[in-house]
Amino acid sequence: GSCTFENGFCGYTQDPANNRNFTRQSGRTPSFGTGPNHDQTYNTSGYYVYLEASGLAPGASVMTSPTIYGSNNNTNSCFVSFWYHMQGAHIGELTAYQIFLDGNKNDRTLFNLSGDQGQLWQFAKIPLYDISVSYQIEFQVYHDSSWVGDISIDTVTFTPGCHPRGTCTSAQFQCDNNHCIYNSWKCDKVDDCGDGSDEKDCGTPVPPVTVAPPTTPGSFPAGKCTFEGGICPDWMNVNETTNPNADWMVGAGDKSRFVFLPTGPTVDHTTGVAAPGLISPTDFEDEFGFFTPDPTGDFLWTRDQGGTPSFNTGPSTDCDTGTNQGYYAFMETSFPRSQGDKARLISGSMTDNGSCSMIICYHMFGATTGTLRVSTRLLSSGVDTQRWSLSGDQGNKWVNQTINAGKPSGPFVFIIEGERGSSFTGDIAVDNIRFTADCDGTGYYLYYPSTDGASLPGTTAVLRSKTWSLSGPLCQVRMFYNMRGSTIGSLSVSVTGSNPQTLVNYDHNHGDSWYESTSFIGSRSNYAVEISVRHNGGTTGNIAIDDVEFINCNPRQKASNQQCGKSQINCQYSRECIALDSLCDYDVDCLDGSDEDPGLCAGYPARCDFENGFCVGYSQSRNDDFDWLINSGLTSSINTGPSFDHTTGTKVGHYLYIETSTPRVVNDVAEFMSPVMAPPPHPPGNPLTCSVRFCYHMYGQSTGELSLWFLGPDGPTSLWEQHGDQGNRWYCQSTDLSGYIGNINYQLKWRGVAGVSNNIIFYGDIAIDDISFSPGCGGVAPTPPPPPAYCSDCTFEQSFCGWSDNVTSDWPWVRDQAGTPSFNTGPGIDHTYGNASGSYVYFETSSPAQPGDRAILQSDLLTYDVKGGCQVNFAYHMFGNTIGDLNVWIRPQGKKAKIVWTKSGNQGNQWNVDNVKPAANLMGASKYWIEFEAVRGSSFTGDIALDDIMCGPCACPANESLCGSGGICITQDKVCNFVSDCPAGSDESGCCTCNYETGQCGWQSGSGSASWIRTAGRSRPSGDATYGNSSGNYMFLSIPISFSNVRGSGSLTTIKFRQTGYRCALCFSYYVYAPAGYSASLELIVRGRKATDERLWRFVGTTSSGNWNSVCVRVGGIATQFTLTFNAAYSSRLTTPTIAVDDVRCENCSRLAKPCAANEFRCFDGHCIPEWRRCDYSNDCGDGGDEASCPMQPGNCDFESKCGWMNVVGNDDFNWTIASTTPSTSTGPVFDHTYRNASGHFNYIETSSPRLNGDTAIYQSPALVQTPLSTVCYFRFFYHMYGANIATLKLYQYETSSNKATLIWSLSGNQGQQWHEQNVIIQSRDSRRRNSE
């Protein structure tokens, strides 16, 4: 049922008698002012379906999904989602229904929306509560009379919980836990079921299962059966009725008996001609047209648009439209292709009635381009004759070539063959293939006639394939069918054999169009395929089929039956031995594909191919720098990351990856974890055999590191790692876990690290796909049940934690993420994490829920505990125009229940927090229930959600603080430590970040002659920095008016912070105005890291244009208590300067201890910083650990002495000077970087007279020795460039061997009154010096 509509309708059907059907579309719709500009799946040139409103009378259009078979899965695990687009002044109505197929259930309305919803794609996600019987999803659009009413649908998705669990076949054994394993695995002394049931009741050993050799060898036919030369050899008519004339027949053109009673097709599907005649051009805009990729080649031609995946080869546009939106066919020559590999396109059948020629547009660009050939094949003899060829690079252009067929003596086909050259820069493309008038397409199809005496009511005609001995696991049969006529019967596709099954069935009038039908066959043995038609009677019931083909059906060459070893297993049909560890690892190892059989692999825990997002139990780390992302196709950066996934090998398949573009920095870490795994029971001393399998992709010049970690009772253990660029390909890794697993639960962690090369990090995307565990690894550990007796916390991330639906509820509460299915109601994020990956529970109020319906969430029977149940806190979300009520009940055991809290109506699109106190309402009872009752309002925009139910005390001990409104206590050292330890982050509110709209957030005015006050609406500044208007608040230095010249100051100080991480920065907006003749300055000081104050930043004068300015100042790592202070200084007399501060925020200040990687340094307190930040004159640890015991490296210098650096004499105009202050005003630093006070020294150039414009001063390092090739060498320095006439600072690299100086960095202009850090990677391996100019 899931479909992106990229390659067709995926089995979705429409009423052929309706003239208002949905249409597949790429790009914008034809009408102005309505419809999308692009699809939703790719946001570019992908496909979607839409109803074109132009020229339609009012009425309904219907599109129906394929049948989805009933399942006994948990009903809370099945959701259908889709994207819709409804823009236009006269949009009608879109409705989605669940249509039950057993006839005993009423159809259910899932979604209903009408009217203009704006020019954007919008998302709907709907729970399917009843999936016990087979059903379909039906999309119905009602259209009014205007053309501005296009409605579009894209990316329909069903969650895995919607699909039935596999049922065991006759060749399989059903475990007690309902998993299916092969019969040959029973009693083999291996617990394949996971519950031991396959090793019960074994008695005497079971002999190996043997399979008789197949009776009919042979392979599936290559290509399509087009019926151009009659019924293909692999198919035959089978008359199963008493009517001897009930057979399929070959036809061409319109076979209607009467013009006024049309039936059957007017053209065949292969050539698209009404009768043998002119062949339509093939432009590859919609599949391969008149051509078919030859499956017997070494690889296949591919349709594409824009550029091909490889660099410096292939076209960037198509031939016929000349744009990157048009399609062409090309042969991708990247790995795993090798020199000489061939791919072919074969045309449909035709005849030469004079001088038949084919005109082909080709593109052959790339240094290693191979050969393009065109041949003809006479169908009667099968002999190929080459007609044209061309080899080598022909330039980045499209070229037309006319190729004559050579007048074959009978029906023939053209063959276009591309041969790969010596390397991957050899993509060959073709497009816009046309045929001259002398080329007659034969244009035949197969049909069952209703226009003669053969077609009596109930007559059945059967087209049967030969009996196939064995098919592969991905086998499908595809055909195109036409069912036009008022008395159409039915058409079905089925398989025979030991497990007969009807794969698909169609009926009713579909109109004069060809429809695609693809049926999945899978691995089967000794069976045939039957295509059957049943006639209803009448003369307007012609049913036709064309272009029938088998896809991916040929198994690999069969092996003889083998006797397998201890750790091996026989494949189900082909009988060769494979390792047990290779079962269900996403790679087909059996010749028959049985090792990846979906029914078998459904019972394997923790498998994940990321096709439906993060699989159950997999989770992102909360202690890293950024997250892994789900993606398909190319990543957002060029020359890095995969272009397709590993599972499907296509652009639409999904994988997991890290995006290393901005804002990422080198050594940023992203981590994700497997589910918690429970090892199977095993005796001591008998180790398990367990491995984890996954595939990875590491491509790009700045690729960093990927590692795998085991998380057990002894902490994290590194299992595997890979570094650097591994090329543009997928690799698969199997890592043995046997020596790490004991008898307690464990977990795995994958860790990606951003790398760097040539100061570039964005060429470093790393991807992962297809994670699986071998059978001996155990299963996903069950979620521990919540304590049954006492009130317990619940964030709803993994489960309901003991909360459940009350039996009197009309509807259930549903766990959800990232927004409820209805529009303009419900939360988009959870409360716990504040993002779309967190979970909450909600009451879905869409139809069929009615006004007044209730959903009641009830706790377990609780025992009152003064320490843990005195106060119950909860977060609630009530957003929507028709919100009903949310009530909290306390129900003491044996007493009458009482509402203790209630809220009604729309409370805004936000999470709110409140609490109740059960103790005041127990009426003497010691046990009680808590119930949250949500009541539906008048319509569907009334979703109510809950999150973070927390049980705690009403007061805290003296050394602890209460979170928010109460219920949770934390120790004082967790307050203002830049980590949210309280559920709503209340321990960090009032600490640093503040826009001063509702208070001062802990910032207090300190000593000095002037005081800081919170104010608004002054003449200068006229507005605040937050909103830019007179009503916004900011902090303002209130300076007393004096009648004499005075100098004064005022300080604004934070509360004491606990500690920070090395990346901590304070960002803020400031406003400084000094009238002529007066002075004003503002500086930022940190107090507590050292014995003396450290000046981090200073501004003197007036901010540019009298506006607010913004700056971020690095604070760095601090391991002790400290404060931040704004110091303002001024001079005044009658007229006062203006100094103000607004929008203060602390960024990246959290200091979380975690295991240090190989390229990290551990501080004294266990905190990790990048190794390259050690010994850089900056206390990044905060505890001084990174600057302790630093070896004296040549060239290191803090300018408290000269350190080997010197002025260059004779090649410049003046010298650098070591100083602690500069004599000029409004330029230069007021403190050094090392000590951040006036006692420290720095090196500077004095540009006052007699210096002239363009004068240079050169300062040179001592000679630096060559570094090992494997080492990345950083040159780090801090610079200060402040003043109105700042020129340029340059850094040169001087090679001693060649006497050559190379510019490696430069910067010009005023950079503000602060020190800046710069890191430059040194690429040379020769002895070298550094010159600063």
Number of helices, where a helix is a run of at least 4 consecutive DSSP H or I residues: 1
* CA-based gyration radius: 37 Å
Low-confidence stretches: 204-218
Largest sheet: 6 strands, antiparallel
C-alpha termini separation: 67 Å
Q: What percent of residues adopt helix (DSSP H or I)?
A: under 10%
Number of strands: 84
Q: What is the approximate shape?
A: globular
This entry's quaternary arrangement is single chain
Q: Would you tell me the overall average pLDDT?
A: 80
Structural class: mainly beta
In what range is the share of β-strand residues?
35-45%
Sum up the structure in keywords.
1333 residues, mainly beta, 6-stranded antiparallel beta sheet, 5-stranded antiparallel beta sheet, 1 helix, globular
Could you walk me through the main structural features you see in this protein, from its secondary elements to its overall organization?
This protein is an all-beta fold and 1333 residues long. 0% of the residues lie in helices and 35% in strands. The protein has one helix and 84 strands. The strands form 22 sheets. Strands 51, 54, 55, 57, 58 and 60 form a six-stranded antiparallel beta sheet that branches. A five-stranded antiparallel beta sheet has the order 1-4-9-6-7, with no helix packed on it. The chain is globular. It starts with 12 loop residues before the first strand and ends with a strand. 40% of the residues are buried. The model is unreliable at 204-218 (pLDDT under 50).
